[in-house]
Structure formats: structure tokens, C-alpha cells
Design goal:
The complex is a heterodimer.
Chain A (H helix, E strand, L loop, with lengths): L5 H74 L2 H12 L7 E9 L13 E10 L1 H14 L3 E10 L6 E10 L3
Antiparallel strand pairs in A: 1-2, 2-4, 3-4
Chain B lengths: L11 H14 L17 E9 L2 E8 L4 E9 L6 H12 L10 E7 L4 E3 L11 H10 L15 E7 L10 E7 L3 H14 L3 E7 H6 L2 H4 L7 E6 L3 E7 L5 E8 L10 H11 L6 E6 L6 H10 L4 E5 L1 H7 L9 H6 L13 H9 L11 H5 L4 H36 L2 H4 L6 H20 L6 H11 L6 E13 L6 E14 L1 H10 L2 H15 L11 E11 L17 E11 L7 E2 L7
Parallel strand pairs in B: 1-4, 4-8, 9-12, 12-13
Antiparallel strand pairs in B: 1-2, 2-3, 5-7, 6-7, 9-10, 10-11, 14-15, 15-17, 15-18, 16-17
Classes of the chains: A alpha+beta, B alpha+beta.
């Protein structure tokens, strides 16, 4: 190999172009890698957002599904008072004669000693006594408990009326309240 | 104008540019003939200069081993580029040269010859290789005669393989440089035409030495070959193995065909070599009549056997054109060792393998060689091209891959997507859902009086065989220390009177299966899930304790219960664990 051309050819014809191209390749790969990293981060955010979107959609559907029921409950909880409770009882006992069903006493306390005790939800307790027939009592209680699902029976005592008027019922309910 | 500047005057980038230009504008990268020996090329022109008049020229096609006589060149033509161009064109236009990729021009210098001894300090045959290079580069340094000219003559070393130990082991051979310009013109023509013309100037007498196996029979005494040329006669002395022992040359004085006093000259050298009766072979190399020379020798050396070798017979044996120089046989033909055993001796082996007799006396000078990159340079350039091409492909691939990837990523919906924060909405919805779940849990039909009454009603027979005295039903929360759900239990205690049949009826419900069946029936009838017995998280226990009714009066049953034989106490307990769906949740922190 001639001494005059060996070095120039090796440097300019081989090493320099390869180095330049390697720099280009490294540059492109580096940039591509950077874009890829950004893309991965964006994709992660996108996926998380899409997951959140789907979750929110599911939640929306569930909330929408429950909305009528929840609205009814809210309305009931908002509007129910001791006075309205009596109204409900009157409506439940409509159609029964005094011989068939008579409420003998009622008492309220602002807390529950029954199943509401120890539960974080505020509740009251109502104790009611009745005299009447079995079926009339059952029918009236069914109407009342259906109208007011907030009522949870704590206890029920049932004895024969000593005067022969029917059956004595004493019910004790925990009633869930808003406050 | 960088094309004519020596590369040492160019900077490295200009040197590189010249290499690239040569590679692009000439065939030096593709045609390897540029770097081949002219004797290896397929098409060759062999020019024989026997005197000053000019050169006899022959076209030689190596692949066919065929010589053709072509136009001769006179001394004027040898110096004129136009004439030489015509000569080359004319030669290459022949049919046999069609498709030739290169031309080798071999000049046989037979017009002048001289020998000189090495300096006295050079006595070691082992230094032959280094001396060969020194003789080519700086002959004055090693020649005994320091007055010789290196400008007008070219010097090369030539060994005596048959020399006795201590005798002269090599000599310096000189030929005139007058035809170096002719060869330079021929090479330049090749450069101009971008057609490799490779040249070599051989000393014809040195080539003739290789003919000795054809001329000489080995004898105990050894032999002498006289090669008669126009202006000189070369005397080559061989030992009994046919190895060259020494060479002497004698110029022909005043246009004579043979040197004066050649007999004594041979006699003295033969005596020095201890050859009493050497066989002498006389060969006319340029067509001179050597009869007189032979006669003179025989007269001078009456004991010697003097013979004349017929050149025409040898030429005919090798099928060369009539009148061809004998040296062509030495340079182009393979001599059969079976016919001529001396071909295998030390001298001829060295000549053949080391090319002593085919040395180029008028080779290109270093400056001319430096003007063009050599074969190795071209290989590196070609390698560079391939590497660059591969690297460029790689770059394109990487750019393509990277560009496509980047483009698709940057233009994707994901890249442009502006993230929406659903956190607040999720929290609101989650709270709303938890609120629903909370109330849904609280408002479950887990404990309803009318269902309880239905249970009692279904438990009692319809045939008045049982009378209930009292019923006590109680629901109790079972607080869990861990977890946010609480189970509960329901208990029924029923006291009453019953006939035996009534007791039998109650007993049907007082088994595990019986009470579960009853609860299941209640659940189905009232659609109250709290009464389903088989959820895995619930259990029901029942106990019936019948007794004899102490107030039983079969005759007067007006008092309550007195008409029944038995009293009973029925206890039912339903346990619902904290894992049950009916368990009460006590979730803190929910907006209610």
C-alpha cells in the first residue's frame, strides 16, 4: 500500500463516513427512543384515563340505575316525621274496623336500643301496641313496613287478649333516620 | 491541476480526492490487470532490440501460447508517442486481441550489456536478498567501481549459484536506460486510454542463461556457453552440475561479429575454474554467423569440444515464428525437465523461482508509481464503498424505522390525547354509589313483622289442634370487633297449648330439615330473602319442649287451654353471620 494514499483513504473513505453514519444512527435511535419513552408515558396516561373513563361510565350507569330508588329513599328520609308516620299507620289500618285492629299505645325514643344500636347510622326507636286479629295485624304491618322500609323490627310480642278481643301485639322498631 | 502534482504536495483530503477520482474515472478499481506483471497478462508484445536500429516485435497470446510477428519499430518510432500509439492500436486491432483488457510490453535489451564486480566488502552469499534491493536502489554503494553511471545505466544483481566457496558469488549487470522513455510513453498511453499497459525491460543475455539446459550436456568438466550478440559476446561458465559459476562478457571491437582474443579469455577463466577441457557451445542469438568464432575457439583450445547450437532447430521445437529470438523460449515456454534435466538444477530453479533473469531493468520510478493509488489502496477504497453502502442502508433503515415509528406515534390519538381528570367525578360517583349501597344495606328486608307473623301462621296447623299463648320474637345485633359488618340473630319463643296431634304437627317443624323447609317456604311466599336457610352464612336451630298440660280438663274445656292435653315451648333461633349479604354494614364517613 502506498504511503501517500493509505491514511487518507482509510480516514476519509472508511473511518469518517462510518463514524458519521454511526453518529446519525445513534442520534436517530436516541431520538426514537426518547419519542418511544414519551409515547409509553403518554400511553400509560391514556390507558389510565381510558380505564378511569370506563370506570366512571360504569359508575355513572350504576348511579343512574340506582338514582330512582335513591331519589325515592332520599325523599322518604327527608319527608318522614313522626307525624307522617301516623299518617302512614292510618293508611295501613284503613279498611279495618276497631274490632279488627286497634292501636293501643305508641312511644318514640330518639335512639335505638335494638339493631340500630352501635350502627353509625342515626336511628330512632318506636314501640307500638295493638289489639286485633292476626290477619288484620299482619296486613296492616305489611302495608306499613312496605311503605316505610326504614323500619326494622327489633322485637314482637304477641299474647292473647285477656278480654277476648283478639290478640295483643307489641312491636318495637328501629327506624333509620337522616339525623 | 492536482492531477499532475506528486501526492506528497497534496494535503490528505486532496490525496483522498485523487484516489476517489482515479477509482471513478479509471478502471484501476475494477481491472486488476493494472497491478499485474506484464508477463502474466494474456496479451503481450515482445520487442527485441538487438542493436540501435530498432526493435523486432511479436504479439504473444499467453492463453493460446501463440506468437505472431507484428510490425517492427525503428529507433525513431520508439521515441515518438504518436507512432507508439499507432503501433499499440494496430496490435490491439488484431482479431486475437479482441476483448483484451490489458497489454504487457516486454522489451528485450540485447544491444548493450556490461558486468561489474561487487565491492570487496560483499562476500557473503547470505546477503543476496538485501544486496538485490540495494543494487536496485543505490548501485554505487555496493559496486567496486565507484565511477559507474547510474543515470545512463540501470543496474541489477545476478547470482552465480554454481560459484565455488570463496569465489565471486554474484555480479552486477547493467543495461542502458535509453529505452526507459519508450516504456514510460507506453505506460502513459495506457493511462490515457484507461487501458492497462504494463511494461518490463529484460536483459536478453540474462534470459539466455535460462536456455542453458537446452544447450549444454553435463560433463565432468563443466561447460561454457557463448551467447553471441551484435555488439558483445557473453561467456557463461557452468560447473559439472550445470550451475552457473561465472559470467564474462567481451565487446565486439569495430563492428566485428566476435570479440578479439576470446580463446585466451576462455582459457584463463576455465583454468581459474579448474576446467581443463570444457565443452563449449556457441549460440548465435541475433543471427550472426558464428562459424568463424567456433573455428577460432577450436584453434585456441584444441582439447576443448566446440559446438555450434542451431537456433532455428530450437525455435522450431517450440513452434515459434521463424527468426524469433531464442530468449522467447526462456521467458514464455516451459522447458520439459525430462528432456532437459538441467532445468531442475540450482541455477535454473533460482532463476525460475526468484526471477533473477526476468528482473525489470527499466521499471517505473517511485514518483511515477506514487501518482496512482496501488491495488491495496483500491481494495481499501472498495471496502470503504461497501462499508459505506452498508452503513448508508443501515442509516436509511434506521431513519425509516425511526421515522415511521416516530411519525405513527406522534400522529397517534394517544400522543394528542389530553388527559381528562376523572378523579373528582369518580369520587363523587363513588360516594354516591357508597351512599346507595349504605342505604340499600340498611333498608334490606332483614327483619319485618309481617313476615314473622307469616312464619308463625305457616307453622301452626289449621285444625285448631294448637293454640298459641304468647309469642316473643327478638332481633339482636351481633357486633363484630373487626370488620365493618355485623351479623344478627333472630329468636322466636312460642308458648302454647296443643293436642297430641298438634304436637305431632309441630314436631314436623322441629327438626333441622323441617325448620329449614318452613323458612324456605316463608321466604318464597313472602319473597323475603332473610328467610332463605341455605346460604352458607346462616344457621337455624329449633327446639320443641312439649309438656303435660296441668290444667287439662277433658270434660270442661272452657278455661283457656284446658281443652288441650299438652303445653309446649317452641324455640327457634336463626343466626346470620357478618359475611351474609343481610349483615348490617356500619360504614363510617359516608354522606347520609
Amino acid at each position: 500500500m502506498s504511503e501517500h494514499y493509505r491514511q487518507p483513504i482509510t480516514v476519509f473513505g472508511l473511518i469518517l463516513p462510518v463514524v458519521i453514519m454511526l453518529i446519525l444512527i445513534v442520534g436517530v435511535l436516541s431520538y426514537t427512543s426518547s419519542v418511544k419513552d414519551d409515547y409509553v408515558a403518554k400511553k400509560k396516561k391514556y390507558d389510565m384515563s381510558q380505564t378511569s373513563k370506563r370506570q366512571v361510565a360504569v359508575l355513572r350507569n350504576q348511579v343512574r340505575e340506582h338514582k330512582p330508588k335513591m331519589a325515592a329513599w332520599d325523599n322518604m328520609l327527608r319527608s318522614e316525621t313522626r307525624g307522617s308516620f301516623l299518617e302512614h299507620w292510618k293508611r295501613a289500618s284503613e279498611g279495618f274496623t276497631g274490632k279488627e285492629l286497634t292501636k293501643s299505645s305508641r312511644s318514640w325514643i330518639n335512639y335505638s336500643e335494638g339493631i340500630g344500636k352501635g350502627i353509625s347510622q342515626p336511628s330512632s326507636q318506636v314501640v307500638m301496641s295493638f289489639v286485633g286479629t292476626y290477619r288484620a295485624m299482619q296486613s296492616a304491618l305489611m302495608k306499613l313496613e312496605t311503605t316505610l322500609p326504614t323500619m326494622q323490627l327489633d322485637s314482637l310480642d304477641m299474647t292473647q287478649d285477656i278480654n277476648g278481643r283478639g290478640v295483643n301485639f307489641t312491636t318495637k322498631y328501629t327506624v333509620w333516620t337522616r339525623k | 491541476m492536482n492531477d499532475f502534482r506528486h501526492p506528497s504536495g497534496l494535503n490528505v483530503f486532496q490525496q483522498y480526492r485523487r484516489s476517489v477520482k482515479v477509482a471513478k474515472s479509471t478502471s484501476r478499481m475494477k481491472n486488476m490487470a493494472w497491478y499485474q506483471d506484464p508477463l502474466d497478462l494474456d496479451v503481450q508484445i515482445h520487442c527485441y532490440l538487438k542493436d540501435d536500429a530498432g526493435a523486432s516485435c511479436y504479439l504473444y497470446i499467453k492463453s493460446h501460447n501463440v506468437f505472431e510477428k507484428c510490425d517492427d519499430l525503428n529507433s525513431r518510432q520508439l521515441e515518438q508517442p504518436e507512432e507508439l500509439i499507432k503501433f499499440i492500436d494496430s496490435a490491439l486491432s488484431r482479431d486475437v486481441c479482441r476483448g483484451a483488457k490489458a497489454l504487457g510490453v516486454v522489451l528485450y535489451l540485447a544491444d548493450e550489456f556490461s558486468l561489474a564486480g561487487l565491492g570487496p566488502e560483499y562476500k557473503k552469499p547470505s546477503e543476496l536478498t538485501s544486496l538485490r534491493g540495494m543494487m536496485r536502489d543505490d548501485p554505487k554503494a555496493i559496486l567496486d567501481d565507484k565511477t559507474i553511471s547510474t543515470e545512463s545505466h540501470a543496474w541489477r544483481l545476478f547470482p552465480y549459484p554454481g560459484a565455488a566457496i570463496g569465489d565471486e558469488f554474484a555480479t552486477a549487470v547493467a543495461v542502458p536506460c535509453s529505452r526507459s522513455n519508450t516504456l514510460k510513453i507506453l505506460r502513459d498511453i495506457g493511462n490515457e486510454k484507461n487501458f492497462p499497459i504494463k511494461t518490463r525491460a529484460l536483459s536478453a543475455p540474462l534470459c539466455a542463461i535460462e536456455l542453458v539446459p537446452l544447450l549444454l550436456d553435463t560433463s565432468q568438466e563443466g561447460g561454457v556457453c557463448l551467447f553471441n550478440y551484435c555488439t558483445f559476446t557473453l561467456m557463461a561458465f557452468f560447473n559439472s552440475q550445470g550451475d552457473l559459476a561465472v559470467m564474462r562478457y567481451m565487446p565486439h571491437a569495430n563492428g566485428a561479429l566476435m570479440p578479439a582474443n576470446i580463446g585466451p579469455a576462455i582459457q584463463s577463466t576455465a583454468t581459474a575454474l579448474e576446467m581443463e577441457k570444457p565443452d563449449i557451445s556457441v549460440v548465435s542469438m541475433v543471427g550472426n554467423d558464428v562459424g568463424d568464432l567456433s573455428t577460432t575457439l577450436q584453434q585456441s583450445l584444441p582439447d576443448a569440444k566446440v559446438g555450434i547450437v542451431g537456433a532455428d532447430d530450437l525455435i522450431d521445437d517450440y513452434d515459434l515464428p521463424v527468426g524469433s529470438p531464442l530468449e522467447f523460449i526462456a521467458v514464455t515456454q516451459k522447458i520439459d525437465p525430462e528432456l532437459y534435466p538441467l532445468v531442475e538444477n540450482e541455477t535454473n530453479t533460482a532463476l525460475r523461482e526468484e526471477g533473477w533473469n526476468k528482473q525489470d531493468f527499466l521499471s517505473s520510478d517511485q514518483d511515477e508509481i506514487d501518482m496512482f493509488p496501488d491495488m491495496a489502496d483500491m481494495k481499501v477504497l472498495r471496502l470503504g464503498r461497501r462499508v459505506r453502502a452498508i452503513a448508508a442502508l443501515l442509516v436509511v433503515a434506521v431513519f425509516g424505522y425511526g421515522g415511521y415509528n416516530t411519525f405513527t406515534k406522534i400522529n397517534s390519538s394517544i400522543w394528542k390525547y389530553q388527559a381528562v381528570d376523572y378523579k373528582a367525578e369518580t369520587e363523587i360517583l363513588t360516594n354516591e354509589l357508597k351512599r346507595f349501597e349504605h342505604w340499600d344495606n340498611l333498608l334490606m328486608d332483614r327483619s319485618k313483622a309481617w313476615v314473622c307473623l307469616e312464619l308463625i301462621a305457616l307453622m301452626m296447623p289449621s285444625d285448631d289442634s294448637v293454640v298459641v299463648k304468647f309469642v316473643k320474637h327478638e332481633v339482636k345485633l351481633k357486633r363484630e370487633s373487626r370488620g365493618d359488618k355485623h351479623g344478627f340473630s333472630k329468636e322466636w319463643i312460642i308458648d302454647g297449648f296443643a293436642t297430641d296431634r298438634g304436637i305431632e304437627h309441630l314436631e314436623k317443624h322441629s327438626t333441622s330439615e323441617g325448620i329449614k323447609k318452613l323458612f324456605s317456604r316463608v321466604a318464597q311466599k313472602t319473597e323475603n330473602a332473610a328467610y332463605f336457610p341455605d346460604t352458607g352464612q346462616r344457621d337455624i336451630t329449633v327446639s320443641l319442649v312439649p309438656r303435660i298440660n296441668p290444667s287439662y280438663n277433658s270434660f270442661n274445656g272452657q278455661k283457656t287451654g284446658s281443652a288441650f292435653e299438652r303445653t309446649f315451648k317452641l324455640s327457634i333461633t336463626q343466626n346470620i353471620t357478618a359475611e351474609d349479604e343481610m349483615a348490617l354494614a356500619a360504614i363510617e364517613g359516608i354522606t347520609r
